[in-house]
Amino acid sequence: MIEALDRTEQIDLLTQQWDAIETLIAGLDEQRWRTPSPLPGWTVFDIVAHIIGTESWLLGERPPAHDPTRAKADVRALAHVRNDTAVLNEIWVDRLRPLPGARLAELYRDVIDRRRTALAAMDDTEWNKETVSPIGQVSYGRFMRVRLFDCWMHELDIADALDLQVEEGGPRGDLAFAEFASSIPRVVVKKGEAPDGARITFALTGPLARALHIQVTGRASYVDSFDEPATVEISMTSGLFVRLGCGRTTIEEHLDKITIDGDVELGRRLTRHLAFTI
User: Fold this and answer.
1) Left if phi > 0, otherwise alpha if psi is -120 to 50, otherwise beta: which for 197?
2) DSSP-derived secondary structure for 165-220
3) Scanning 61, 115, 148, 233, which has its CA 20 to 30 A from the CA of 189?
4) Which pLDDT value is given to residue 64?
5) How many angstroms separate the CA atoms of 278 and 122, rounded?
6) In DSSP terms, which residues pair with 222 in a beta bridge?
């Protein structure tokens, strides 16, 4: 499912993604910066602070020192913090939160400029070197596909929070979606409990329109087509599919936008249990 791109192409798409976020946050007033987002406990400001934190960490930097005049947040006690990665994310967000939005935008531009420089200086050996990532030990290049997906999804989060429309398709969207969709076969079995022998089609419309055919035979995997009719076909927009998979919304809020043909019980179970991202 994941398209093979050379290093230059992939870095170009990632930098375009960073530019898209910079355009989205340009000129926000303080009230808009503090608009609640689809992510529990986070505002638009917090999402950008999170991106700054991750890219700073990739540059080898640590979160800012705790301000002794502020109460130290117990980030592990927050309901949306469920693992060590989330703890690190939350520490960066908490330490940056007192800043005004305009200053955060400056920090974003600075860290992204330095990340561009660092990526441009990498050679193929560094790009292909194994490294720790949110999906385990993978090549640095694969990790950057995960970063593209993460930043693309956060662009959608910011746009949804601010009630703005952004381009969800195109080359950036295609590669981000491929990274996202690579986990769906595992999710339909592990969380959706799709039975052995099930043939599942997600028929997606919209900017990332496509049909995803998943065959469960011992394990779930993508196939080009089925030899028999699908057990269930679930139709929705690509945008809704991604937002369900990333836990930004639930099927109950969009029952009129999802069509299930075939095994309706299985279809409802799958759509209720699509969320898998951190």
Assistant:
1) left
2) -----HHHHHHHHHHHHTTHHHHHHHTT-PPTT-EEEEEEESTT-EEEEEEEESEE
3) 148
4) 82
5) 28
6) 214
> Rounded CA gap, 14 and 20, in Å?
10
Q: What angle do CA 257, 264, 217 make, to 5 degrees?
A: 115
**Helix, strand, or coil (residue 234):** strand
Q: What residue has token string 């993460």?
A: 150
User: Residue 76's pLDDT is what?
Assistant: 61
254 to 10, 166, 209, 243: CA distances (angstroms): 34, 20, 18, 11
DSSP 8-state code for residue 43 = B
Q: What is the mean pLDDT of each run of 10 residues along the chain (278 residues)?
A: 75 98 97 96 97 96 78 63 68 94 98 98 95 92 96 98 97 96 97 97 98 96 97 98 96 95 97 91
Q: Give pairs for 25-29: CB < 8 Å, separation 24+.
A: 25/101, 25/105, 25/108, 25/158, 26/105, 28/101, 28/105, 28/162, 29/101
Residue 53 has what pLDDT?
96
Under a CB-based contact definition with an 8 Å cutoff, are residues 119 and 11 in contact?
Answer: yes
β-pairing, 199-205 vs 232-237, is parallel
